[in-house]
Structures are given as C-alpha cells and as structure tokens.
Amino acid sequence: MKIRHALLAVAAVTAVLPGATAHAAPQDAARYTEYVALGDSWAADATFTQITTAFTPVNCVQSARNYGKQVAQALGVPVFRDATCGGATTRNMTAPQTSVLGTNAPQFDRLTPTTDLVTLEIGGNDAELAATVMECVTADPAATPCLDAHVSADGADRMSQNLLAAESRVIATIDGIRERSPHARILLLDYFQGVDLDGGCFPEIPISDPDAIWLGHKLLELHEMLARVADTTGVDFVNTYEGSAGHDACRPVGTRWVEGLMPFSGNPVGLAVPFHPNQLGADYQAVRVLETLGVN
C-alpha cells in the first residue's frame, strides 16, 4: 500500500541483500520460464531494513526477501522481474512513479508476450485505504477521527464506496496483463488481516477501538472485493486473508505479520514501514502463492 512518510530516510539504509527462501525448487519448476511480480508496497513487502535496488529504485522500498523473490527462487524460473513499488496504484501499471529518489518505470513494461506467470497485488492505494490508516491515529482513546471523516450521519461510508470504485480498475489491470502476456497464468493476491475485527490495542497503537474495528472491516471489504475480481476475470485468487487472524499488528514480536505505528520490527530487527508486512508476513504470502501453484 501507499507509504508517504520517511522515504528520504531510506537513502541512508539502502542495501542490496541476497534473497532467501525456505522452499525447495519443485520437480516441475521448468513449467514457468518468465515470472513478473506486479503491485504496491504489500507486494514489495516494503522495508527500511533490507531494501534492494536490483529491480526498482530506492523509493519503491522493495524488500530483498519479498514474496515475489521467494516464489521465483522456489520455482527456479530462469527469468524474473520484480516491478513492485511502494505507493503504486493501478495507474502505475502504465504510468511511471517518480520521486526525488528515482523513477520506477510503468510496471507493465516488464511484461512480454513470453511471460508465463504473473502475480498482482493492487487496489489498496486506489481506494485510499492505506493513506487513511494514519488519519485514525489519535491521543484520545474515545476519539473516532476515521469514522467522523469517512462515515456520514446517514451511515454512508466513503471508504466502502472507494473500494467498490477500485474494483473496475483492478479488472482493467488484469485485462491489460492479458493483452501484453496472453499466455500468462495470473495470480491475484489480497491483503491479509492487519487489524483485528474486534478492536485495537490502544495506546500501543494509538487508534481507538471503534476506528480499529472500522479499519478491520475495510480490510475485509478489500479482501472480498479482490475475491470478486478474481472470480469475474477467471484468474487464480491467492487468499492470504484466510488464516491470518491472530497475526495482526497488535500481536507480539514473533506472532504479528504486520507492523504497527512504531517504525521498528523484530522480523528482521531494524527499521520498518508502519502498517506493512514484516518478514513473517512476506513468508506467509510466499507460502500461499506456492500453495496456489500446487507447490508445497
């Protein structure tokens, strides 16, 4: 999803780190020969600790051990391109992302007619859900800044409307992949449960319970929207939401798969991007992708 804060600081910690995976290459690994990973910061598994610029500029904060790289290594694909970039929307499939730290070319530029495997995780920034998380932060446990800003007196929820509007853009993105790579198997990932549906953990994460519950249900709506897109377009759906309960940002180090407000992680130890997957979350995403591909 979108990351707006502390991007200039990553220049000081940029590093190209070797990839790692716990998965062995399957016997039929040669089935896929050209894999392209597309998506936003949850696909890049954005990090300030193990950034790589092997595929994208530093402003993409792409992890050297994100799920795309783990899947590529597990499959043993001879050609892999990782276009994922923090802050990406569906627009950035065909338009570049530019900041003072660099430019990531349009993500579709990595697709070719011979691409035979594509993973895609996108939609959170189109709905502006990622940016909204920081709006919920408050010093008052009774305050509800997100509910006040996004839900009207008559119950209309602007974020729910945004999520519905993003659906057609994700469908169009899949159509664009098929136009450029007609023989590719396409896997669409959702976003796993980063916020518990029953509430938060104020003051550890300074978001009130009502706003945390609202955020949790918006993530559920995002999951449901992407599941509909997969069904509508006939692509494979990688359901990372299922099985992720109990691993939200309020859980202790070693249990949580997504970090909270503090920009520090225990997996790996070091600077983290708030409200994004840590290495345990990236590993879980990789496992679910490989399961969908029939690789255990």
TrEMBL record:
The keyword Endoplasmic reticulum belongs to this UniProt entry's keyword annotation: no
Signal peptide coordinates: 1-24
GO molecular function: hydrolase activity
UniProtKB keywords: Hydrolase, Signal
Span of domain SGNH hydrolase-type esterase: 37-282
Statement: the UniProt record of this protein carries the keyword Signal: yes
InterPro entries tied to this protein: SEST-like (IPR037460), SGNH_hydro (IPR013830), SGNH_hydro_sf (IPR036514)
Top-level division of the source organism's lineage: Bacteria
Protein name as annotated: SGNH/GDSL hydrolase family protein
